[in-house]
Specification:
Layout lengths: L10 E5 L4 H12 L1 H7 L3 E7 L6 H16 L3 E5 L15 H6 L11 H22 L6 H12 L2 E5 L17 H6 E4 L1 H5 L3 H10 L18 H10 L1 H20 L16 H12 L4 H8 L11
Parallel strand pairs: 1-2, 1-4, 2-3, 4-5
Helix pairs in contact: 1-2, 1-9, 5-6, 10-11, 10-12, 10-13
């Protein structure tokens, strides 16, 4: 296979998450010529999968990013479910949970990132590559392989900050076709840019700092974030409680022991988690909760 490898850097795919790390990278791609030459010297495609449950401000800042890319002739796509690239059973974050009376949990394997982000951007990118490079193959992994044989390995930029190296994972565990056809690139790790430095980069270009990338309901959230959700997005909070209740009722009826009938936070229910959070942080103002949220992104638990 290596006989066919060419380091042409013909195409760079940037998986934009809508958060602070992604914004820092996007701005450097646009305004820093040396950075652009090093990380995306030829064709650049920026794409983001819509989970349907992004933070309201993430949608606002993503729209700003799309407009900025358009202004600077960079192709940007927010991949929505109606475009046909989301799995049928994962049209949005809670789709599968609602249909099957289940719910994501810290005690279960994490499947949401894979289904509503990784699979979506892989499928969309294959479709885009086929349309823009006259690829004859039809299956997604074959599209990537045909591109590889013709143009070389695709560079794929991920917004992982310095200090989060544990998220890089072991690429030997990736599907073989990805190992062959893609080179994963982590500019912020390369340059030693942590979250604080990423915020500084954004401000240096005259832009507001967005909140970290996160779905509004996420089993990785911390206590202050749960209080923020309860206060600011009550419809989201109570829908999450409903999903947990439906899951627990389903498995209670099937005879599962209560101590094994877990919700998003394990044995402790969302309500119980909220009550204990209020004891610790209930005195915090909205401004204090907002400040905390600005430094905590749930997707930093993911290797994507």
């Amino acid at each position: 296979m290596d006989l066919f490898y060419k380091e042409t850097r013909e195409l760079t795919l940037f998986s934009f998450g809508g958060g602070q790390d992604s914004w820092a990278i996007l701005l450097k791609l646009i305004f820093d010529k040396t950075f652009r030459q090093n990380y995306a010297p030829k064709n650049l495609l920026v794409k983001m999968s819509d989970t349907g449950w992004e933070h309201p401000k993430t949608y606002l800042f993503t729209a700003r990013a799309a407009a900025l890319c358009k202004k600077h002739n960079i192709e940007f796509h927010l991949i929505k479910s109606e475009m046909g690239f989301h799995p049928k059973t994962w049209q949005h974050l809670t789709d599968n949970w609602e249909k099957n009376n289940t719910v994501g949990s810290v005690t279960f394997p994490q499947t949401c990132t894979d289904n509503i982000k990784i699979k979506v951007v892989d499928k969309f990118s294959a479709h885009w590559i086929k349309a823009n490079y006259s690829i004859k193959s039809t299956l997604n992994h074959q599209i990537y392989k045909e591109f590889f044989y013709k143009y070389g390995r695709i560079h794929r930029i991920l917004g992982i900050a310095s200090g989060e190296e544990k998220r890089l994972g072991n690429q030997k565990h990736f599907p073989k076709w990805k190992q062959q056809t893609m080179k994963y690139v982590y500019p912020l790790v390369d340059l030693g840019v942590d979250r604080a430095k990423a915020q500084k980069i954004i401000r240096s270009y005259g832009f507001d700092v967005p909140p970290p990338s996160n779905c509004t309901i996420c089993f990785f959230m911390q206590d202050p974030e749960l209080i923020w959700l309860y206060r600011n997005l009550p419809a989201h909070f109570w829908h999450w409680v409903k999903l947990e209740r439906n899951k627990r009722n389903k498995y209670r009826a099937l005879g599962l022991a209560e101590n094994k009938n877990h919700g998003p936070f394990g044995k402790k229910t969302i309500i119980q988690k909220l009550k204990s959070a209020i004891v610790k942080y209930g005195h915090w103002s909205t401004e204090q909760l907002e400040e905390y949220k600005m430094s905590h992104g749930h997707c930093n638990k993911s290797k994507f």
